[in-house]
Amino acid sequence: MKKLVGIIVMLSIVLTMLAGCNSKGNSSGGDMPTYKMGLLPWTGYAPWYIAEDQGLFKKYKINVKLVSFKQDADLNAAFASDDIQLANIASHTALRMAGQNGLDIKSIVFLDESTKADAMITTGKYKSFADLKGKKVAYEEGTTSDLLFKQALKDNNLTSKDFKIVLSSAADAGIALASNKVDAAVTYEPYISEIKNKNKDIHSIYSGSDAPGLISDMTVVKTSFLKDNPKVQDKLEKIWDEALDYWKENPDKGNEIVAKGTGSTVEDLPPILDGIKFFSIDEQKQLMDSGELAKNIEKIKEILTSQEKFKNDVNVQNILSIK
Q1: Are 257 and 53 in contact (CB under 8 A)?
Q2: Bond into 212 cis (ω within 30)
Q3: Cα–Cα distance between 171 and 192 in angstroms, integer?
Q4: Is the pLDDT of residue 2 over 50?
Q5: How is the chain split into domains, by residue range?
Q6: For residue 31, what are the CA distances in angstroms to 12, 18, 21, 26, 63?
Q7: Average of per-residue pLDDT across 118-123
Q8: What CA–CA distance (Å, rounded) separates 114 from 117?
Q9: Which residues form the SsuA/THI5-like domain (predicted)?
Q10: What is the fold of 118-210?
Q11: What is the pLDDT of residues 157-185, one digit of tens each?
């Protein structure tokens, strides 16, 4: 009887440990759990593909599995439900997660800022943003494209009611423009370059360069995850820096890895990369220490809250965990 009781106790302990793994990461069969990292085919997240290809996760003894998503909403849902533990998302998405969904999150790596890599594109028929008044504009709701369009509206003293909005994924928005189903599309790279290469008449009419600091990205985790796994941030910071260094020192090989990961071509990368600013860990810390990072995120928060009421108070400083 005592033996039977002992077996039951041991089984209970094992089941408890397995349950813990589900909230903190999936067991990889050894002592180290596997953390799933969600990302979209956005070139700003590309250094993670290099990290995977070059074995940098293994070097720093952290098991990370990259999980690709086509739409922001799917990635966000996976993160909220703990299907993934690490999420690469736009800064405004992080604010929404905290403000609308009540998620307690931390930004542990500030990845990039988009200048020309997020844009509203249209045909040569339209020379200015105002020319598109009353026309069909396609974009993905709740994404950087949505945010950029709203800023363009503000800059041009217009509202969304002045346009015929067509909601679609970032990829489909560009396709809709190319097939003349809409008059303009707000999307991001590599979709912008893909459409421009197919139709030389397509041009950017408003981009991230018209709203500096508005479009940026970060890697976030839940605060509870970071508390349970305090070494993850330091390891990912080192991995991010080494991936950037490798890409700089090996541009041809790096571009091959990035093109494969994002679904673009090596030939398309130069104009795409020209519109993205990647931040090293030192640069991230400088932005944090100077207060510039918090200022830019506050600006994004101001734009969001002017158009939608957050259900929860959002403390920008509390979200930023750049050390």
Answers
A1: yes
A2: no
A3: 9
A4: no
A5: 32-113+216-267+279-319, 118-210
A6: 19, 12, 11, 11, 10
A7: 96
A8: 5
A9: 43-253
A10: D-Maltodextrin-Binding Protein; domain 2 (3.40.190)
A11: 999 999 999 999 999 999 999 999 999 99
